[in-house]
Amino acid sequence: MREIRIQALARADDILEALSKGPPEGLRLQDVATRTGLKTVTTLTLLQSLVGLRLAEQLGKRGRYRLGPRLLQLGRKVEARLDIIALARPALIRLCQQSGEMVNLLIPSTTTMVVVESLKGEVFLKATPLKGRDLPMHGTASGKCYLAFSSDAAQRSILATLTFTKTTQKTIGDAKRLEKEFAKIRKQGYATEEDEYTADTVALAVPIIDQGAKIRATLSLHGPGARFGPARRPRLLAMLQKEAQRIGRELL
Fold it and tell me: Once rounded to an integer, what is the mean pLDDT over residues 193-209?
């Protein structure tokens, strides 16, 4: 477990844990203080802040406390991401076996794409070092793909906060150049990355669109440029698009 440097956050977490184990009717202030080992005044201050954030709720002006509705909303978002991983895993396995290349499933964070699953191998599949990493939106096929298929409002919001760090000479270094690629990506239905994030690496990424026509994630293949030549790319893209569409049809 990582060290929690901000004591108030650790204490708030203790309170939420206590509330999660309390009865449906909630816990009294003194009950929460006793279970967490905190002083009553400290417990009250933190509970009031948690109520303000809707992470906890109070039943009546001086009533008991229990977990708030905001936690349910956040939990559903996490659950939705886990649903994508579960739904996509068979597709990742098929793509690995059919292509022999590294296959990645990425979901958006604030200004990066998070590799939630990454596999390689044709017969014996294993996770790659990319799993769990944050990749830049401006310098990867998946990031460009996600931005291109996002709403105009989402694009503007993300572009306004992006830091255009260059990891190779070919990394896109400004918003205007990045925006020029969006129309092309939408028209062809996929994004490419050639030596933009790491040297001698090519990636192909396609969007995973849910039934509400919203992009939820990206599916990508990547590997050495020598294996992603013009003659082979159409076949790889066809496999990617087929699996991405299959996943999207199952996402509400």
Answer: 95
